[in-house]
Specification:
- It is built from 14 helices and no strands.
- It is an all-alpha fold.
- Helix 1 runs antiparallel to helix 11, helix 5 crosses helix 8 and helix 6 runs antiparallel to helix 14.
- The chain is globular.
Length: 335
């Protein structure tokens, strides 16, 4: 029962993340770099900081926790800087492939590397016992995402150039796939950062990972901020922030997008608190989150009509891929 509750909490956070790109569509009269920078302030600084405060035990301060192990804190921030490259290219993958396909490829790669890297670093034998179950679970996830990727390639063939531009204005399959794979590999550093960050022993189990989450997103913010501000300078888009008519609404939608994005890691931290730390489910939690992100992102892709006009075969392949991903969520519990 506790495991089911943990899964539901992770699913709720995943739905929030997958919904975070919907408010961004409401942002008007801003360039890509401007809204990405502003939503990043909320997604990677404001809300993770609020979450981190929840883990502070009575009688301590957040600074005491973060500075208790400087080496661990610096590692978490460093992994965050690397993850920031993934976060940045993740946004670009949405730009070139759309919500459904962009998230599928990026998050699929992230699911595999983000699950296996920490396991390997911990010395887990991936060819025996629970390690083998973990490896097989990742393979099932990748199979589902590969099928969805195939559906995306079929969609590309089904649609005319005009239909592609209407669904995704800057659709570019080759460029988008390259960016999405890079995003997935670098985004896996988030999982390494969570493992490297300081552990709050006196904090409730549900909140233990939240300070480390803040350190990782803090590092990632600098990568994204540097790139976005450079693009603002290069494209002379600093004027975006002075558009008084658009400013209040854009800040609201960026803040909403940031909050929804953060719910995935808030839900992951709380959800894992319901799992046995020695269980496969605990080690597989990252992969579960990424799988759910892909499922919900494709649901949003359907709602946003990114799959409109495709052939019945393409729709059947998409449904098959989603079914495999859903099966991957219960796979660890079979053994």
């Amino acid at each position: 029962m506790n495991s089911l509750l943990g899964l539901l909490i992770i699913a709720a956070g995943s739905f929030g993340q997958s919904s975070s790109y919907v408010p961004i569509n409401k942002v008007r009269d801003w360039s890509w770099e401007s809204f990405w920078f502003v939503q990043g302030i909320f997604a990677w600084l404001v809300f993770p900081l609020i979450g981190a405060f929840l883990a502070v035990p009575e009688g301590q301060t957040l600074w005491q926790i973060l500075s208790s192990d400087p080496a661990s804190a610096l590692k978490a921030v460093g992994y965050g800087v690397l993850w920031g490259v993934g976060g940045l290219t993740f946004g670009l993958s949405m730009r070139y492939l759309g919500v459904a396909m962009g998230q599928s490829v990026s998050l699929g790669t992230c699911a595999a590397f983000g699950t296996l890297f920490p396991a390997i670093a911990a010395g887990t034998d991936l060819f025996h016992g629970t390690g083998l179950i973990l490896l097989l679970g990742v393979c099932v996830t990748l199979a589902g995402i590969a099928v969805i990727g195939y559906a995306g390639s079929l969609r590309s063939k089904d649609m005319t150039s005009r239909e592609k531009s209407q669904a995704v204005k800057e659709f570019a399959l080759t460029k988008g796939l390259s960016v999405a794979v890079l995003s997935g590999v670098m985004s896996a550093c988030f999982a390494l950062g969570l493992d490297a960050g300081p552990v709050v022993e006196d904090s409730p189990a549900l909140f233990k990972t939240l300070p480390a989450t803040f350190l990782v997103t803090f590092g990632g913010f600098f990568t994204n901020a540097a790139y976005c501000l450079f693009q603002d300078f290069r494209n002379r888009s600093f004027a975006d922030y002075g558009k008084k008519d658009a400013l209040p609404g854009n800040i609201f939608f960026c803040a909403l997008a940031g909050l929804l994005w953060y719910t995935q890691f808030f839900g992951l931290g709380i959800g894992k608190g319901f799992f046995d730390e020695d269980s496969v489910l605990f080690a597989f939690a990252w992969c579960i989150l990424m799988s759910l992100n892909v499922v919900f992102s494709n649901v949003w892709g359907i709602i946003l009509k990114e799959w409109k006009g495709v052939a019945p075969k393409t729709s059947a392949v998409l449904v098959c891929g989603l079914a495999i991903l859903i099966f991957s969520l219960v796979f660890p519990n079979i053994f």
